[in-house]
Amino acid sequence: MFRVRFAPSPTGFLHIGGLRTALYNELFALHHGGVFVLRIEDTDRARYVEGAVENLLRTLAWAGVQPTEGPYLDEAGVVRERGEYGPYVQSARLDLYREYAEKLLASGHGYRCFCTPERLEEVKTGQAAAKMPVMYDRHCRSLSVEDGDARMKDGASWVLRLRIPDDGATTFVDAIRGEVSFQNALIDDQVLVKSDGFPTYHLANVVDDHLMQITHVIRGEEWLPSTPKHLLLYQAFGWEAPMFAHLPLLLNADRSKLSKRQGDVAVEDYKNKGYLPEAIVNFVALLGWNPTADREVYTKGELAAEFALEKINKSGAVCAIDKLNWLNREYLKEMSADELVQRASPFYVEQGIDAPAALLEKAVTLEQRRVSTLAEFPEATAFLFTDRLEYDPALLAAKKSDAATAKSRLEGLLAFFSGLSDESFSDAKSLESLTIAQVAAQGWTNSESLWPLRVALTGRAMSPGPFEVAWALGKEKTIARITTAIQTLA
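Request: output the structure for the sequence above.
Response:
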């Protein structure tokens, strides 16, 4: 059975690239009937952020990405675990890493390094000045076990390093990139255990992937240079390595690496701006891959049915916000009024709008095909939730008209609407037909009549049409607003 994993570090919010990695792992597992594992890699204690694990789990749950094994939040918001290969949090597995670190020392594949930070910085500076590869100079590789033991007894600080072969190459086949090769002479003797006794990512992730029986490692391109080190660790332990697949980078519009300097990078940012999880999942799934050339909108089931690592592009994928906005609009258009109300309500509450349910339903329906995100609904429909609008008298007159004409047309429309039944306002199309017929019968033009009507009902130059707004407001509020607009023009 295929087993894959997503192994983030709890150092902050989930990056949009991290969500893509998690999603691709899940899609791969779903496609093959395999297992998707979530593992928390928290051995870098200096970068650990309190609450980041809970935030990660909430964000994955919001996006609908559901690991088969690993940590999850129960109904009380407490972190629990499911699965037979735990613990799934690395800080709870330290004894395991110590055991395997000792094995590397005993076999000679690892060695103790006593170099001070000052010496390492001096070496690094000298190499950079000489335009040499910046890497550890292997100063401690020749230390005898006895010498190392003596230094330890004296209290010297040390780290465990991986002994990289002096010559040859480490070559492997990447599921996305094909054959990849690294010259061993250019691979750093990686630190595997830090001076605080915690393992680095490299040792811990190899040990965990083996013990958790991971068959495919699907991760970001930034880990490609680390892969030869990991393969050498597999060889040192005598283990079979998994298949590796390194995903392309996510890029800004100018094709630079995606960064917060040019836009949002955290999934939470997109959530807070009112993007739908379905649209986000659809969007990130297509960053570097598309099942077909003739579609952009897919359900998650459709994505899983078509997912294949070999079809993922090698080149970087541009994170185009315009495409995300389009996708989000497509999903919004297909929602029922009830679901729209449920999804949009928190954004109204956030803006301090306590809307009656019936009016809220009309509001979201009014703007359903116009807004790009849920967060845009409150501002777009705010004119519906106020008792009194403030008018710019100059705005009430159409471009090729004047205030006197605007006032005259509004007075005529006020008299007309006052004579209609309440039921006439229950259907926007019917109200439009009745009103257009009245405008024609009076010999008025549509522009000089409907422009001041729309501004009278919304107070805005840009808004939905006047008949949709009148439908949302109802007869009483429609008449009240027209009356106020007329008074403004007096």
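The longest strand covers residues 169-174.
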